[in-house]
Amino acid sequence: MEIRTLHADEQLPMELLLLADPSRKLVEEYVQRGQCMVAVADNVIIGVYVLLPTRPETVEIVNIAVDERHQGKGIGRQLVHHAIANAKLLGFKTIEIGTGNSSVGQLALYQKCGFRIIGVDRDFFIRHYEEEIFENGIQVVDMIRLSQDL
Ligand code: ACO
Ligand code: ACO
User: Fold this and answer.
1) Which end of the chain is more exposed for a tag (fewer CB within 10 A), N or C?
2) Residue 52 to residues 28, 29, 75, 79, 95: CA-CA distances in angstroms?
């Protein structure tokens, strides 16, 4: 498996991006401003992450996803580590990530990769998403914000 930049002439892996973020409108908007990296195996895109500069010296992983058939094999962890190294190489001092209050596995993964919880953006998903979203039997309402010094 190789992790590389999505080439300008390649189609966006929209199905994957929508796994992490159900809002096509938000995805299309931040993908344009950010750097889209893909995990490729046998010429097929099986994972993606998007890095977006947000504030001076700060970058955020705004989207990360692995094809359902390939989840649980360590690819997500490799993508998070790649994003951290990539952000460091680009000269950023802080990397951030945010996920829903219901995303138990994602919160475990990010903390295993060195992120620490820094805050809660209350009602984020109520303000920014039209439909109600449920995961692990929990309604997604708040955004848990995590950060790591580079
Ligand atoms: N408790 C403890 N640890 C857990 C739990 C849990 N409930 N769930 C997962 N983990 C751990 C795993 O054990 C593993 O750690 P390990 O390597 O120590 O065993 C790690 O978290 C996940 O391992 P990977 O196999 O590397 O993850 P995967 O390849 O499945 O990718 C991802 C993770 C990207 C979250 C994937 O499941 C996915 O695409 N999900 C749907 C989209 C999504 O939710 N994306 C994130 C939204 S937030 C955002 O985009 C900023
Ligand atoms: N992802 C999603 N849901 C989960 C996960 C997970 N990783 N882990 C647990 N849950 C859910 C279960 O699915 C279940 O929900 P459900 O009824 O919808 O299926 C619920 O959480 C737990 O169910 P119970 O069986 O009622 O819980 P249990 O009898 O095991 O008691 C407790 C929970 C008290 C935390 C017990 O595990 C325990 O004693 N742990 C050790 C002591 C401890 O950690 N106590 C809490 C410390 S904080 C404090 O004391 C204030």
Assistant:
1) N
2) 13, 11, 20, 15, 10
Ligand 2 atom nearest to CA at 136: 2
Tens of pLDDT along 123-138?
Answer: 999 998 888 999 999 9
Q: Is the CB of 136 under 6 A from ligand 2?
A: yes
Task: Name which CATH class applies to 2-149.
Answer: alpha beta
Instruction: Report the atom number in ligand 1 closest to the C-alpha of 67.
Output: 39
For residue 104 and ligand 2, the question of a CB distance below 6 A is answered with: yes
Question: How far does residue 109's CA lie from ligand 1's centre (Å)?
Answer: 5
Whether the complex's predicted ipTM is more than 0.90 is answered with yes
Ranges of each domain in the chain: 2-149
- Regarding the beta carbon of 17 and ligand 1, being less than 6 Å apart is answered no
Report long-range pairs for 48-51 (Cβ below 8 Å, ≥24 apart). Answer: 48/6, 48/13, 48/16, 48/17, 48/79, 49/79, 49/80, 49/82, 49/83, 50/17, 51/83, 51/86, 51/87
Q: Indicate the helix (H) or strand (E) that contains 41.
A: strand 35-41
Q: Is 83 in the pocket of ligand 1 (CB under 6 A)?
A: no
